[in-house]
Amino acid sequence: xxxxxxSARTQRNRSQQSLAISTTDQRSRIARPPTHTxxxxxxxxxxxxxxxxxxxxxxxxxxxxxxxxxxxxxxxxTLIATAVTVYSWTVYxxxxxxxxxxxxxxxxxxxxxxxxxxxxIKDQLAxxxxxxxxxxxxxxxxxxxxMKRAPERPQRQPFTAFTKPPQPKPKKITPLGY
Length: 178
What we know:
Structural class: mainly alpha
Number of strands: 2
């Protein structure tokens, strides 16, 4: 004996049949125009009737409006992309400018510090030179040392990318023996 009641089995059989009909007729349903089904009380099978569907042509004005909408969508997208690009470039360039300006200010501060340090060192050297304990004397012609001029050397031509350096003379190789 089956534990499933008869009404449940009938309902299951009908759903399996409708599933089989829907999978087998799927291609033909796509190709056909929409249909209207009617069931008669005598015949439990559905009766399928074709309804005529008139395809209405879209008006030219509607087509023009759709084309205008597509064009305006494209223009809007292009303008938004351009605006985002220009904005990001502006922000990036401002950040770069700020970083470089900070570097410039730092270099100028370092230059001022070096100039001040150089002047302090010069002042210290001048004060030490005035102190007689350091042994420095003021220059005068009597304590000046004169040296003879060194002989002039021949000028060398500087090497560039276009001139070749002088090649060393090859040594004469003689055979040592046979």
